[in-house]
Each structure stands twice: as C-alpha cells, then as structure tokens.
Amino acid sequence: MKKNLSRCLLAAAITGLSITATADTTLRLAHLWPATSAVQKEIFETWAQSVQEASAGELQVEIYPSQTLSKSNKAYDAVVSGIADISVTLQGYTAGRFPLSEIVQLPGVARDAPQGACILQSLYDNGAIAQEYSDTHVLFMFTTGPGYLHTRDTDIQSPKDLEGLRIRRPSEVAGEMLSSMGAQPVGMPAPEIYSAMQRGVVDGLSFPWEAMKVFRINELANYHMQVPYYTGIIMATMNKGVYQSLSPEMKTVIDNNSGMKWAMTAGNVFNRLDEEGRQEAIDLGHTIRVMDDPLNDAQWSIPLREGTQNYLNTLQQRGLETAQDVYQSALDLRQKCAS
C-alpha cells in the first residue's frame, strides 16, 4: 500500500518511533512551470522516470506543477516543513535567503543556461554556497539563460527608456538594478505575469527567452531589448528528513540522480528553449534589439556595474565577508564551464 512519506515521518515523530522508507514510497515534487511545458516533460518527468526505474519502482514521484502544492515564494519553506518532499523554485523568490547564491545572477557571470548551471552547481559542490541550504538536501541546481527586457508598447533602446515603466522583476537584486534605471519594479511569480500584463498591471517584464515561450508572454510583448542583465538561478531540493529516512540503496538512487549531471541536463533544456522562445518572437514579427556586451556599453554599463558592486557591498555589510571571493570564483568558473 502506498504511503505518503512526509505524513509517515510526522506520525513517527509524534509517536516517538523511527521510520525507514520501504517499498512504494511516494515523493511529492512541487514546481511552478505549467504541466504541459517542456520544462516539466524534459526535466522533471525525465528525472522522476530515472528515479523510478533505478529504484525498481520502490520510489515513485508525484509531480505538482503550476504552484498547485505550494506557492513559489513559499516553495523552499514547503520542502523544509515537509509540505512537499521535493521543491524546484528560483532562489530569487525568497528575498535575502540565498544571498551568496544570488551572486550568480549578476550581469556578466553566465553567458547561457548551461554555463550558468555549471557555475552554480560548482559553487555548491565546492562549498562556497552550500551553507545556505543546510536545512534541506540539495539535489541539483541550474539556471535560466540571460534575462532580457520585454515590453508591450515601449521600444527600449537605452536605460532612460525604462523611466516610469512598471516592470516585473525576477528578484530583489534585479529589481534594484531596474530601479536605478528609473523603472518601477513589481514583484510576482512567473505564472501570474500573463494576466498582469494583459490587464495592464505591468508594462513589461524581465525574462529569459525560455520563459517568454513557456509562459506565453510572447503573445503580449511586442518589443524586446536583449540586454543580459541577470540570470535566474534555480534549485531542486529535498526534505532532509525524507532523504535520511531512505534505505542506503534508495539514498544511492537519489544520489545518482543529483549533482552536475542533472544540472547540465536542465541547463541544456533551458538553452534550447531560449532559442525557441527567441525564434517565436521573430516569427511573430516583433522588434528585437540586441546589446550583447552591456558591461562595456557607455550607457548600460553604468547601472549594471554600479548595481553589481552595490550588491556585493551590501553582502559584506551584512557580515558575509566571502561575497567578493564567491563573485570572483563565479567569474573564474566561466572558462571551465564554457559550453
């Protein structure tokens, strides 16, 4: 008979009993992407199938897409508390909780999703950011491709064109950079953007091309400024008690479906979706402007470089003395992680 592992762990805690996961353990995986998306099918369903096959069916995975089990900004707490056994979400949705990890978001760190995934996973593996996840068991980490600026009615060509525009921000760090350029950052989870933009709550957003396709925003945005000013970082992490309750054999199954292999699998999926999202906008006849190297552009470099240094200074003021070292490590990893 199937059992929900989290409920069994809770019952065991109440009764004072110890419990070890046995046959037909069901792991609930929560994420924010649509059930029909390639992200669900090619990353999460593929991961679930790999786990189920490697465990000979002893581990089953139930997937809860589109925030159906937990809201994006509560997803990490949901896995800590056991509401979800596994959560996949963006660190930027929990402002200030993963400050060193968010260094990978900064402009100029990652050129594309595979490189970003490699950099982020490497920083976790070498211990530079691992302490930020001490209350869960991390499976793997990855990133989106570069996030760009997309608007419905405004053709953005320089930072001053953002003045007064209500732009959905992906994270606090990216939001501060938008503010420095005169925009009004608006926070909301990705699944809510379509409705907000359709109703005029926001004038535009910052998103990678992958998300423009997955969340159907290309239907609403007509102008795209391809200036890579942030990268979304993502974690797939597991309830620590759930992992510890597994038998040694089942822990090995999870371990073999963790780490760099799956980071790169996800990064490659996102990279292909970036290409498809951009092509979709081209096919729709949208206006696309390109600024590939904003850190060396006379106009864009000022807010982006200032925003980067302000963020690192803020972390050091908070007592995170390794911030500059983590940033330098991320930059140093670019060559090793070049795709």
UniProtKB/TrEMBL annotation:
Keyword field: Signal
UniProt xrefs under InterPro entries: DctP_fam, TRAP_DctP_sf
CDD domains reported in the protein's UniProt record: PBP2_TRAP_Dctp3_4
Cleavable signal peptide: 1-23
Cross-referenced Gene3D superfamilies: Bacterial extracellular solute-binding protein, family 7
Protein name: TRAP transporter substrate-binding protein
Organism: Marinobacterium rhizophilum
